[in-house]
């Protein structure tokens, strides 16, 4: 089963992604994590990615599509995966016809996400400044919202209230994909 998690920063994608990965015995992969690893490289690409991430902007589509699809070609992802943070633009979604089963949107209000992020441990992520987070939310509304409609039309879209407690959100997701106990 191939599942995509979509939501603004602070919506709980990595929390739910890791829980789903355990429950469904599928690998969890985060586009943001891939880029954070690449940004540690001391080459021009690493430096470029770091700059873009720290500002809260998106890595250009062509590069993102190439990097993420390359990862997904690895043997461990052939039976399925939980993918967080990709696709984030319509161009990415259209280029990525990869047998996706379900797209789960963790809906959380901007205010609630900002509130949650203000309680995160400092120093965990260099790209977690308030300005970068605000930019990411703005870009989500502008570029990622159309992706939700795209998957709605394909009948793969599931919206979950991400403001509920973690266990309830997980249960709602499992129910919606027919994997509830
Ligand atoms: P995240 O951990 O999902 O918040 O991603 C952190 C950063 O990685 C983003 O602000 C972007 O700079 C980059 N990134 C992650 N996923 C994508 C994507 N699908 N397209 C473009 N940039 C991305």
Task: Give a written overview of the molecule.
- This protein has 181 residues and is α/β, with parallel strands linked by helices.
- It has a single domain, classed as Rossmann fold, CATH 3.40.50.300.
- Helices cover 51% and strands 13% of the residues.
- It has 8 helices and 5 strands.
- It has a 5-stranded parallel beta sheet, sandwiched between helices.
- Helix 1 packs across helix 8.
- The longest helix is centred in the C-terminal third of the chain and has 24 residues.
- The protein is globular.
- The mean pLDDT is 93.
- The structure holds adenosine monophosphate.
- Adenosine monophosphate (AMP) binds next to helix 2 and helix 3.
- The site of adenosine monophosphate has 17 residues, from helix 2 and helix 3.
Structural features:
single chain, 181 residues, alpha/beta, Rossmann fold, 5-stranded parallel sheet, 8 helices, 5 strands, 13% strand, binds adenosine monophosphate
The fraction of residues in strands falls at 5-15%
Task: Report the CATH superfamily.
Answer: P-loop containing nucleotide triphosphate hydrolases
Query: Radius of gyration from the CA trace?
Result: 16 Å
What is the element string, with H for helices and E for strands? EHEHHHEHEHHEH
Please give the CATH class. Answer: Alpha Beta
Q: Main sheet?
A: 5 strands, parallel
Query: How many helices?
Result: 8
Q: Overall 3D geometry?
A: globular
Strands of the biggest beta sheet: in what spatial order? 2-3-1-4-5
- Arithmetic mean pLDDT: 93
How many strand elements? 5
Structural class: alpha/beta
Please estimate the helix content: 40-55%
Instruction: List low-pLDDT spans.
Output: none
For this structure, the CATH topology is Rossmann fold
Query: Could you tell me how far the N terminus lies from the C terminus, measured between alpha carbons in angstroms?
Result: 17 Å
- Tally of domains: 1
Q: List bound small molecules.
A: adenosine monophosphate
CATH architecture: 3-Layer(aba) Sandwich
